[in-house]
Specification:
The chain contains ten helices and no strands. By secondary structure, it is mainly α. Helices cover about 75% and strands about 0% of the residues. It has one domain.
Length: about 220
């Protein structure tokens, strides 16, 4: 892929991640009202924070490793499996802690917390780091644009009252999850071969490698 095409793909992906939430916010404020809009914004912030912990720096380290191993299918499969299972473990830990702390510490209900956690769940499924590392940013952009369009349409068409704030949170939080589902056929060639030989050592290696940059702020929006 040419450098220009890679740059265009990344630009489109990040632009739609910023613009779609900006288009949603005025409508959300109007439909949900001041109080429920505050609940919406707070829940989205919690979901984004959880997604940052689950991402754990893989958007830098795993992406770089994928680029270095683009011509080694077995290495890519193992890397994909290690990152997938490491993110899953982190997400399970954060979800468990969040459910315990939801009412008493976070101040939101457990169902609302789970709606917000769709962002983190989607971070497991969406292999944006892999597609970008393999210089297939346009495919990551295609998945992201498709997911953002679905989220925008579902929000505008289905969120009609303050009582639907949980659905509002879920529809926006599910963007990475939908992008992941859209991108699954795009990474079919990598397959799941790496899931069989994965070992605890691979997970600990990923944690140690990504640790130094694990809490770099993400650039994605709601």
């Amino acid at each position: 892929m040419s450098l220009r095409r890679q740059a265009v793909g990344l630009t489109i992906m990040h632009a739609v991640d910023v613009l779609q939430p900006l288009l949603i916010l005025p409508y959300a404020a109007h439909v949900l009202g001041a109080q429920q809009f505050g609940v919406f914004a707070y829940a989205m912030a919690i979901g984004q924070l959880a997604a940052t912990f689950v991402e754990y720096g893989f958007h830098w380290t795993a992406q770089r490793a994928a680029g270095a191993a683009r011509n080694e299918p077995l290495v890519l499969a193992t890397l994909f499996a290690d990152v997938l299972l490491t993110k899953t473990a982190l997400c399970f830990l954060i979800t468990t802690v969040g459910l315990v702390a939801a009412n008493s510490v976070l101040g939101i209900s457990q169902p609302m917390f789970l709606c917000a956690m769709l962002t983190a769940f989607g971070g497991i499924v969406f292999p944006g780091w892999l597609l970008i590392g393999l210089e297939r940013a346009w495919q990551a952009a295609l998945a992201t644009v498709s997911a953002r369009i679905c989220a925008f349409a579902s929000f505008v068409l289905l969120v009609r009252s303050p009582e639907q704030v949980a659905f509002a949170v879920a529809s926006q939080s599910a963007v990475p999850l939908v992008a992941g589902l859209v991108s699954l056929p795009l990474i079919r060639s990598i397959g799941v071969a790496g899931l069989r030989p994965v070992r605890l050592a691979g997970i600990t290696t990923q944690l140690a490698t990504a640790g130094p940059v694990s809490y770099t702020p993400l650039s994605s929006g709601y």
